[in-house]
Specification:
Length: about 550
C-alpha cells in the first residue's frame, strides 16, 4: 500500500512539475526546502543561546547576561524572518498545484463525455466529492512531505552535530532511539490509519450524497411523506461515519498521540542525566545541560515529525488514492465502438443491435429505419424494450452492439430528455444552452413565445435574471423551456425522449406543430397515443 501510495503520488505530482507552471513550482519548493533547513539550523543556534543565558544567570554575570539576551533576540529575529518565507512557500505551493490539477482533471472529466462513463462505473463513487475535496486533500501532501523529508532530516543532522561536541555516546544513543521509535510507529500504526481514512472519506461522501438527494428531491419526498425514511438513511450513514471517525481518533489521538508524548518526554531527561555528572563536578556550566536537552529533544523530534504527522499523512494518501482512481477512469479510453456512426444528411440505421455498456444484455437485433430530412418518426414499445437505449446509441453514448447509424454531426442535433435539464445561469443562458454563442433579445423572446412562455422573462425579472429554475418553474414549464432551445437554435434533428410527458394536450400539439413548421427532423419516444398524429411513421420495438 505504501509503495502504491508513493507511485500514485509520483503520477499525481510529476505532470505539474514539468508543466508550464513547473519553474514557479520548483522555485517555491526550493524556498520551502531551504527555509526548512535554515529553520532547523537556527533552532540549534537558539538552543545554544538559551544555554548561554542560563549559564550567565548561574554565574551572576550581568554583562554576560545582557550580551546573551541581545544575541538571543538577534537570532530569534532571523528565525522569524526565515519562518515567514518558509511558511508562505510551503502553503502557496499546494494552492497553485491544486488549481492546476483541478482544472486539468475537470477538463478531462468534461471532455469526450468521460463524466458519462465515470457515472456508469460503480467503483468510482462520488466523483464530484473527489474533485472538490479529495484533490484539496491530496495536494496538501507537499506540506507534510516537505516537513519530514527536509525539516526533519535537517533537524536530526544539526542537532546530532551539536550533541557530538558534548558526548559521542549520547548522540549515538539518541539516534538509535529516534529511529527505533519512528519505525515502530510507522509499521504499527501508519498502515492502519491509511486504510481507515480511505473508508472514512468514502462514508462522509456517501452522507453528503444522501443529504444532497434530499435537497434535490424535496418536493417528491414531501409528497410521499418520506421524511422518516430519509432521516433513517442519512442517520445510518452518519452513524457509520461516526463509528469510523471514532476508530481513527482512537488510533491517531489515542494510541499515536500517547505514544508520541511518551517518546518525546524521555530524550531531554536522558541528556540531563547523562551530562549531570560534569555539571556537578564543575567541569561544565549548567547552560550546557539546557542546550543539550534542547538538542536532544530536537534530534528525536526530527524522527517523530513523521510520527506526529502519520494521521494527517494517512488521510492525505487516502485522498491521493481516490484522486488517482478518478484520474485513471477519466483518462481511460472508452471501449472500442462496435456500432458504426456514419455521416449523412438524414437519420437512418441498418442492421442495428444495441447492447448495454457492460455487454451483459442485447436489447434488440437487426433494427432498421430511415427518417427523411424534415420528417418525423415515433419510437414506441413496452417499457424495457430499449426505446431510450436507441436514443443513447444515436447520440453515441452507447457504442456496443452491431450495425450502423447514419446521421449528421452531433453538434447539429438536440436531445430533449423527459426531465428537462436546467443549468445554473440566466434565462438567456437556459434558452441558448448548450451553445455559448450570443443570443439577442428579440430571438430569445421569440423562442420563448413559440414555447408558450411569452411572459416568463417578465415574471423572472428579465432575460438576464438568475434563479433556481428547477424550483421556479413547473415540470411543464421546464419542458417548454427545453423546446424554446430548439426554436432558438433550430437543429437539423431533435430527439425527444418523452419530452412532452408533463404537457397538456394543447401545449403538446403546439410544440409539435411548431417543430413541423420549422422543417426540423423529429424523432420521439413515447407511450401516449396522442403522439401518433404528429409523426409520419412509427417504429415499434417489441
Amino acid at each position: 500500500m505504501r509503495l502504491g501510495g508513493l507511485r500514485a503520488l509520483w503520477n499525481l505530482a510529476s505532470p505539474y512539475f514539468i508543466s508550464a507552471e513547473g519553474p514557479g513550482a520548483w522555485t517555491l519548493l526550493a524556498i520551502a526546502v531551504a527555509g526548512g533547513i535554515a529553520f532547523a539550523r537556527l533552532g540549534v543556534v537558539l538552543n545554544g543561546r538559551e544555554g548561554e543565558l542560563i549559564s550567565a544567570l548561574a554565574a551572576a554575570n550581568a554583562p554576560r547576561f545582557a550580551a546573551a539576551v541581545a544575541s538571543f533576540l538577534g537570532w530569534l529575529a532571523a528565525l522569524l524572518a526565515v519562518l515567514a518565507f518558509y511558511q508562505y512557500a510551503l502553503n502557496a505551493l499546494p494552492v497553485f498545484w491544486r488549481r492546476w490539477f483541478t482544472l486539468r482533471l475537470l477538463d478531462g472529466y468534461l471532455r469526450n463525455r468521460a463524466y458519462y462513463r465515470v457515472a456508469a462505473d460503480t467503483s468510482i463513487d462520488n466523483p464530484d466529492e473527489r474533485i472538490a475535496n479529495d484533490v484539496h486533500l491530496a495536494t496538501s501532501v507537499v506540506v507534510i512531505l516537505t516537513l519530514f523529508l527536509t525539516a526533519g532530516p535537517a533537524t536530526i543532522i544539526f542537532s546530532s552535530e551539536a550533541l557530538w561536541r558534548r558526548s559521542h555516546e549520547l548522540m549515538f544513543v539518541l539516534l538509535v532511539y529516534g529511529l527505533a521509535v519512528s519505525l515502530i510507529a510507522v509499521f504499527a500504526i501508519g498502515g492502519r490509519l491509511t486504510a481507515l481514512n480511505i473508508v472514512l472519506i468514502r462514508r462522509i461522501a456517501d452522507l453528503r450524497f444522501a443529504l444532497a438527494r434530499v435537497r434535490r428531491y424535496a418536493e417528491a419526498i414531501a409528497f410521499h411523506r418520506g421524511e422518516a425514511r430519509e432521516a433513517a438513511i442519512a442517520g445510518e450513514r452518519l452513524e457509520r461515519s461516526y463509528r469510523m471517525q471514532n476508530r481513527i481518533y482512537w488510533w491517531s489521538d489515542g494510541a499515536l498521540a500517547g505514544y508520541t508524548a511518551i517518546v518525546a518526554a524521555l530524550p531531554p531527561l536522558a541528556a540531563m542525566v547523562w551530562l549531570a555528572p560534569d555539571v556537578l563536578a564543575a567541569r561544565a556550566e549548567v547552560g550546557v545541560v539546557i542546550e543539550a536537552a534542547g538538542n536532544a529533544a530536537a534530534l528525536v523530534g526530527g524522527f517523530t515529525l513523521l510520527v506526529g504527522n502519520l494521521g494527517a499523512l494517512a488521510a492525505v494518501f487516502a485522498g491521493i488514492e481516490r484522486v488517482r482512481r478518478l484520474a485513471a477512469a477519466v483518462a481511460a479510453a472508452p471501449p472500442a465502438a462496435q456500432i458504426a456512426i456514419e455521416p449523412a444528411e438524414s437519420l437512418a440505421a441498418t442492421g442495428l443491435a444495441v447492447r448495454t455498456p457492460d455487454g451483459a444484455r442485447t436489447l434488440f437485433h437487426d433494427l432498421a429505419f430511415a427518417v427523411p430530412r424534415g420528417g418525423s418518426l415515433l419510437v414506441s414499445g413496452p417499457s424495457g424494450s430499449g426505446k431510450s437505449s436507441l436514443l443513447r446509441a444515436i447520440a453515441g453514448l452507447w457504442t456496443l452492439g452491431a450495425g450502423a447509424i447514419l446521421r449528421p454531426a452531433i453538434e447539429t442535433m438536440l436531445f430533449l430528455p423527459q426531465r428537462a435539464y436546467l443549468i445554473a445561469g440566466t434565462l438567456r443562458d437556459q434558452v441558448r444552452y448548450p451553445s455559448d454563442h450570443p443570443a439577442d433579445d428579440i430571438a430569445v423572446h421569440a423562442a420563448l413565445a413559440a414555447a408558450n412562455l411569452a411572459d416568463l422573462a417578465e415574471r423572472a425579472g428579465g432575460l438576464d435574471a438568475v434563479h433556481d429554475w428547477s424550483r421556479l418553474l413547473s415540470p411543464g414549464e421546464q419542458q417548454r423551456l427545453a423546446f424554446a432551445r430548439v426554436f432558438l437554435q433550430r437543429p437539423s434533428i431533435v430527439v425527444l425522449d418523452e419530452a412532452t410527458s408533463s404537457l397538456d394536450a394543447d401545449n403538446e400539439r403546439r410544440m409539435y406543430e411548431r417543430l413541423g413548421g420549422l422543417g426540423i427532423t423529429v424523432v420521439s419516444v413515447g407511450h401516449n397515443a396522442s403522439l401518433g398524429p404528429f409523426h409520419a411513421a412509427e417504429l415499434r420495438i417489441a
